[in-house]
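Hi support team,

I submitted a single chain yesterday and got back a structure, but I'm not sure I'm reading the token output correctly. Could someone confirm the output below corresponds to the sequence I sent? I've pasted both exactly as they appear in my results page.

Thanks,
R.
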Amino acid sequence: MRQVSWQEIWSGPSAVTFGNEGTPFYISGPYDTPRQVLMTLNRSVGRDNYHFVSGEPEFGDLV
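Hi R., thanks for writing in. Yes, this is the structure output for that exact sequence:
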């Protein structure tokens, strides 16, 4: 039996999509650090280019 690599299994487009309407969408979980995640999103995709939901107080300096 031939062994299959992960590259063969995960090649091509995925049926799984992420985000909301083409933009990243972050939902804060109980063990997350929302401030760090929002800082990463700001660096990665830029301010106003993602959506998020959090039970934490406002992050006015980050969004």
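A quick pointer for reading it: The helical segments are 6-9, 34-45. Let us know if anything else looks off.

Best,
Support desk
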